[in-house]
Amino acid sequence: MHHYITESGASLFDYGCAFPQACLQSFGLIFGRRSDGHHVKCTVCCNGTKVCNEDLTCQRYPHRNDLIHQITSNGDHSLQFIMTDYEDVTKYAKYQSFSISNETSDYKLSVGNFSGNAGDSFTGHSGYKFTTKDRDNDLYSGNCATLYIGAWWYSSCHSSNLNGKYYHVSNSSYAKGIDWVTWHGHYYSLKATTMMIRKNTK
């Protein structure tokens, strides 16, 4: 297992193999995983462009979103969310098209063509920029990343947030947990989530 990048204090960038392009062609590239809170190191730091280590200090590593942009700008890609609740029910949401822009454009999200059994809680974020604690790109009068404890593609504010606070129980404060609104609403925090990119084949 190869753990390369931590971003926004919420998840490891976990290739699962030494060659990312090979992973993309096979089972997909995992770039966000929450399961037990161990991956939560800090909220967001360093202008959204560096990463937080266990001591909550900043180190110069590539930002996760830079790598996602690089990958998704090279061909067509799909995105899949796999989510498990505290009743151990697992559901998924897949988006046949997925990309994010570069840092200059604040990693604006483009996503579409939903399928799955978890409901669509992500298409509504398409077209919005990535907001962190110190880069407020959302439409809310405050900062959604600060209010809801995690960086995400907020509008004002969200119908999903897989970078929210890990509660270790299903119930959470309004919209501050790991949310997927079309499945469990804003007061339920999910037990485990995975975000995966796959390169589309013709």
TrEMBL record:
Record domain Fibrinogen C-terminal: where: 65-201
Keyword ATP-binding: no
One Gene Ontology cellular component: extracellular space
InterPro entries linked to this entry: Fibrinogen-like_C, Fibrinogen_a/b/g_C_1, Fibrinogen_a/b/g_C_dom, Fibrinogen_C-term_domain, Fibrinogen_CS
Taxonomy, superkingdom: Eukaryota
Keywords: Disulfide bond
SMART domains in the cross-refs: FBG
Pfam families linked to this entry: Fibrinogen_C
Stated name of the protein: Fibrinogen C-terminal domain-containing protein
